[in-house]
Structure formats: C-alpha cells, structure tokens
Design a protein that fits this description.
49% of the residues lie in helices and 8% in strands. It is mainly α and 344 residues long. The protein has three domains: 196 residues, Lysozyme; 65 residues, Membrane-bound Lytic Murein Transglycosylase D, Chain A (Roll); 64 residues, Membrane-bound Lytic Murein Transglycosylase D, Chain A (Roll). The strands form two sheets. A two-stranded antiparallel ribbon has the order 1-2. It has a two-stranded antiparallel sheet with strand order 3-4. It is elongated and about 75 Å long.
Length: 344
C-alpha cells in the first residue's frame, strides 16, 4: 500500500511544511515509512498519552503565534513529551534546548531553576526560535531541519547541493546533511501523518472541558508534593509539569514563582491553596462563573464587586475578549461567597 493510500492526510501534512506533494512518492521516504510506520504508531500513542496536558498548550501557543499546529509534533520527536529528558549533547526539556540557545532566548539555566524544563516558557522560546529560522530560510521543512542540526549546516547543505529541494538535501547517497537530520525530517512527517490520519483532537482549550494547562503563582520554597495533595494529583504528575524546579521544590530566592497545573485543577487550586498573604485581602474566597452571551469583563466585575484586572490576573487572560460558555474564577469576599452559595 502506498503512502497516499495509507495516509490520506499526506497532502495536508506536506503542504504545512512547504513540501511538494510529489515527495509522497520519493522512494527513500516510501522505504522509511514502510520500515517504521508500525513502530511510530505505537510511539505516537505513548507520546499522545504522555502529552495529555501539554499538547493543548503547545498547539494553543502555536496558533496564537499564527504558526501551523502541526509543529506540535516537533516536541514529540525531540523529547516524547518528557519535560526533564537530557541528551548526551546537554540538550534538555520538552524542546531540547542546549544551554547556549536557551540563554539566547532568555531562559534561565541554573541548578535550582532550569527553564528549559518549564513546558510553557520553553514553548514560547521555541516558537521564537522557529520563527527566526523560518524568516531566514523561507520554508518550514528547512526551518525544522535547522532546528535539529543548526542553521549553518542547512545553509552549507543548500550551497553544496545548489538547491533547497528536500529530496536532494536529504539524499542518502549525497549526504549533504547529517544522518540524524535526514532521518529527523522523515520521522516528523511520518508522525504527523499518523496523528492527522487518526484524527486525534489534541484538545485546544475547549469551553466545555477546559483542557490543557495554566500557570499559577505560589510562594517561594513551596513543596510541589503539598500542592499535588491539594489538587488530588499524583506528585509525579505535578512534578513532571514543573521539572524546572529541582527535587520538586520551588526555590526560596524569590517571594513568588510560577508553576504549571492542569487547567481542570484551577478551581481546586484557588479553593485549597492559602499561602500566608503579604497583606490582608478581603477577597479570599472564589466562585466559578460561566460566561453567557454578550457578557463582558466589565459586567462580570461589577456583578461580583471586583476589578477587571483582578479577574484577568486570576484567569491568566491575555486580553478582555471572552468566549461564551467559558469558565472564569472570580475572587470574592466571604459575604459574597456565602450569598452565591445560598442562591445556588
């Protein structure tokens, strides 16, 4: 069975990476797919399960940056969605940044805090890096290969080959690019075809289910095991989302730090997490609010006698736009909380 028969998604996947559809008939690629598709189908399911909370976040950031959401398959190839994995070349985290590249994008790389392992922050940095590579090469398959082996190697390969055509650049006999990179682009395309062919919805933030992850603030020195207990989570799950903090504990050098939690745990977090406040705050209770049609932040803030800025801060809203049926967490006083509860 040919690639086009086995994977009807092939045309979409190739076009998203700026590759001509004819590459589906390339003999080297056909051989690669035939040799590896069973293995990659198993790996895809493993990675998809491991990335249950991370995939929606990665896709959301890509779409917000106006990039193809198929680039979400890149961290699958890089790390298998293991946020703490480290390569022999000292590349680390979801997107496998080496220390020098991480620092170029202002990621902290230190013993107590390694932001390469922070999935949200590292994804933002990876997007900036990919955008820069695309601006330089003008085609996504070139940007992806440069992500793997470096822009200098890709530029040199194009000069030597006299073309930027994919099948020539990764020809197994000419060897213009390293063996790892020649296999890298094929692995990415195969994994993307498998995923798109299976029609798996990676789960962009859904107003009904609120999938994905969100970042919240905790006090310096917080033990993530304690937070996991408040959220009814296995400690390993929460620590896996926050591998940037060593030994499962937030550093003490700053007053506050950001941690990543599943979005579905947001209400539990605000209900159960009560750090010692810097100053008394009368709005120390929280209620949930489902956004109805034509409702604005201003109307919601007035209803609960709070501020627009506070609602945006608690819910990590980038702007004042609201999606109907979405869930908001509203900070209220004890009296307001009891009033809401009594009227339910």
């Amino acid at each position: 069975m040919t690639i086009t028969q086995k994977y009807p998604s092939y045309a979409y996947v190739l076009s998203e990476f700026d590759i001509d559809e004819s590459y589906a008939y390339d003999q080297d690629f056909e051989n690669f797919v035939e040799d590896h598709d069973s293995q990659f189908k198993r790996l895809y399911r493993i990675f998809q399960n491991r990335g249950e909370f991370l995939l929606p976040m990665v896709q959301r950031q890509l779409i917000e940056a106006e990039l193809s959401d198929l680039l979400a398959y890149l961290p699958m190839i890089e790390s298998g969605f293991d946020t703490d994995i480290e390569s022999p070349k000292q590349a680390k985290g979801l997107w496998q940044f080496i220390p020098s590249t991480a620092k170029e994008y202002n990621l902290t790389v230190a013993y107590t805090l390694d932001e390469r392992c922070d999935p949200v922050t590292a994804t933002a940095a990876a997007i900036l890096h990919l955008q820069r590579l695309y601006r330089k090469f003008g085609k996504w398959y070139l940007a992806v290969m440069a992500y793997n082996c470096g822009e200098g190697r890709v530029a040199e390969a194009i000069r030597e080959a006299g073309t930027d055509e994919l099948s020539i650049l990764i020809d197994e006999r000419a060897k213009y690019l390293p063996k790892e990179t020649r296999a890298y682009i094929k692995r990415l395309l195969l994994l993307a075809m498998i995923g798109e062919n299976e029609g798996i919805d990676f789960g962009l933030i859904d107003s009904a289910q609120q999938k994905g992850v969100v970042q919240v603030e905790v006090k310096g020195g917080t033990d993530l095991k304690d937070i996991a207990l408040l959220l009814n989570m296995e400690p390993t799950g929460l620590i896996g989302l926050n591998s940037q903090y060593k030994k499962g504990r937030v550093p003490v050098s700053s007053e506050r730090y950001t941690i990543t939690i599943p979005y579905e745990k947001l209400i539990l977090f605000y209900l159960n997490y009560h750090p010692v406040p810097d100053a008394p705050d009368p709005r120390d209770h929280f209620v949930s609010h489902i956004v109805s049609a034509d409702e604005t932040l201003k109307l919601i803030a007035e209803k609960y006698h709070t501020s627009i800025s506070e609602i945006r801060r608690i819910n990590h809203l980038q702007n004042t736009n609201l999606e109907q049926e979405s869930l908001l967490i509203i900070p209220v006083t004890r009296e307001q909380f009891e009033s809401v509860v009594n009227h339910q």
